[in-house]
Amino acid sequence: QVRLVESGGGLVQPGGSLRLSCQASGITFSNSTVTWNRQTPGKQREFVALISKSDSALYADSVKGRFIISRDNAKNIVYLQMNNLKSDDTGVYYCYGGTYWGQGTQVTVSS
């Protein structure tokens, strides 16, 4: 059974940082391109960041220079380091890999 479990979300003030984790089981992340995506109420789910099987990274323009995606193959985890957070970054963050979605973790950026 494949499971992707996100964690690390929470409430943070503007300018703060969070690190999200996507822990995989039943699938080997090193063999997969993995993406982080987010969704806010009333909007479609949008792409945030991607890490390829060769560890190349790609970012949405809105997060470029602030977010960093990385992976730890030994732990089968993909991370999303989010710095200088803005209120527009608020949403539920989902990871996706190997055709599977996680359940999401809530990120709220507010003073």
How would you concisely characterize the structure shown here?
With 111 residues, this protein is mainly beta.
Question: How many beta strands in the DSSP annotation?
Answer: 11
Give the averaged pLDDT, no decimals: 96
Q: Biggest sheet, open or closed, and with what strands and sense?
A: 7 strands, mixed
Distance between the termini: 40 Å
In percent, how much strand structure appears in the residues? over 45%
Q: What is the global morphology?
A: globular
Q: State the share of residues found in helices, binned by percent.
A: under 10%
Rg value: 13 Å
Oligomer: single chain
Low-confidence stretches: none
Structural class: mainly beta
N to C succession of SSEs: EEEEEEEEEEE
Task: Give descriptors for this structure.
single chain; 111 residues; mainly beta; 7-stranded mixed sheet; 4-stranded antiparallel sheet; 51% strand
Structural overview:
With 111 residues, the chain is mainly beta. It contains no helices and 11 strands. Strands 2, 4, 5, 6, 9, 10 and 11 form a 7-stranded mixed β-sheet that branches. Strand 4 (34-39) and strand 5 (46-51) form a beta hairpin. The radius of gyration is 13 Å and the shape is globular. The chain starts with a strand and ends with a strand.
List the helices and strands and how they pair.
Layout: E1 3-7, E2 10-12, E3 18-25, E4 34-39, E5 46-51, E6 57-59, E7 67-72, E8 77-82, E9 91-97, E10 100-101, E11 105-109
Parallel strand pairs: 2-11
Antiparallel strand pairs: 1-3, 3-8, 4-5, 4-9, 5-6, 7-8, 9-10, 9-11
